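Section 3.1 - Work completed
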Amino acid sequence: MHKAHEIIFAGFGGQGVLSMGQIIAYAAMIEDKEVSWMPSYGPEMRGGTANCTVIVSDSKISSPIISTFDSAIVLNQPSLDKFEKAVKPGGLLLFEESAIINLPTRSDIEILSIPANEEALKLNMKRVANMILVGAFLEKRPIVKIENILNALKKVLPERHHHLIPVNKDALAKGKELVNEEIKL
């Protein structure tokens, strides 16, 4: 059966929201899947809202414009408020624990709270919080292989940043581990 997986990544500019989507899109391309990556940002990049829609499919994607999603990965309260209702019943809503004050209330979707910022600080690398969320997401919805996320990072990151690939690998593993510790609401 050909199934597409539609994801929204949303947060403030500067949180790595667009990068998360891009890395999953590149990993899917490495796996010869059909991919759509569509960014959207507010007027000011850092601090403004940013989101991107990613579709990963085994067959042709008819339209990249979608309003409901199989999964939502949100990094701030405004994004949760905006996209919680857009997750399809039976879908997944994954969020950064420290950024959310008013918790999601739906009971027809799977909801995971991930302390990505806290865990990234423990790795001494605040900027890998987004990779912890990607690792958690892929543990729940393995739409691409982790090794292809790492291969995608090698392609996306400039050579001078390749020394960061091991810490990103650790971050992906930490996300997977957090899901398996069953941090559920």
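Second construct:
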Amino acid sequence: MLLLSIRPEFVDKIFAGQKRVELRRRKPRLQSGDMIAVYATKPRCELVGIVRVVAVRQSTPCMLWMTVGSEAGIDRQQYDEYFAGSEAAIGIELADPVRFKRPATLQELRAVWPGFHPPQSYRYLNLDEAGLIEQLRTDPNKCDSAQPSRSAP
């Protein structure tokens, strides 16, 4: 599982079904069927839900826009600004967004996940951390008692 930090306006579009492709300048190790835990960055600072990876596309910025631009949740100007100076563009196709009944705040995450720091972009989760995400998905009250058996970096 991947923990992905995303700006709040894009998080909302993902869970509203208006953004079906997440754009990145660096390609994470993902494949079809993998799950992504979605963390909304400042000012919200909360773990919001999970989504499933359909596919990961890599191309030039121009070619990727032609393929997935209508599903990226941004306009062409924003897209061009984001990929300015980049030779490669990554599009992570998303499906089946599941918003948690109650997001887990940064304070709650730190209380149950020793040493938790949201990633600048993304980070891979070990099995214990992924298990905690699953517990939070199924029972939002787990924030009060859930803890991975190993501390997270």
